[in-house]
Amino acid sequence: MKCALCGLEFKEEEGVSRCRGCPLARSCGLVRCPNCGYEVPLEPKFLKAFKKWRKRINETKR
Amino acid sequence: MRLRKLVIVGGPNVGKSVIFNSLTKRYVTVSNYPGTTVEVMRGKAIIEERKFEVVDTPGMYSLCPITEEERVSRSILLREKPEVVLQVVDAKNLERMLPLTLQLIEAEVPLVLDLNFMDEAQKLGMKIDLSSLEAQIGIPVVGTVATEGKGMNLLKKRLGQYSKKDAQPIKYDRIIDSSIKEAKDLLKGEYPISKRSIITLLLQEDPEIASLVRLKEGENYPFIKKTLEDVKNRYSHPMNYVFGLYRQKKASQIADLVTAPFASPKVGLGERLSRWMMKPLTGFPIVLLTLFGLYEFVGVFGAQISVDFLENIVFGRYISPFMTEWVRRIIPWLFLQNLFVGEYGIITLGIRYAVAIILPIVATFFFAFSFIEDTGYLPRLAMFVDRLFKKVGLNGRAVIPIVLGFGCDAMATITTRTLETKRERILASFLLALAIPCSAQLGVILALLAGKPKSFSIWAGVVALNFLLIGYLASRVLPGEKPLFYMEVPPLRWPKLSNILSKTYSRVEWYFKEVLPIFVLASILIWAGKITGLFDLAIRGLEPLVQGIGLPSETAVVFLYGFFRRDFGAAGLFDLTRTGGLSGVELVVAVVTLTLFVPCIAQFSITIKERGLKTGLAMVAFIFPFAFLVGFLLNLALNLLGVKL
Question: Domain range holding B438?
Answer without folding.
Answer: 277-479+517-640
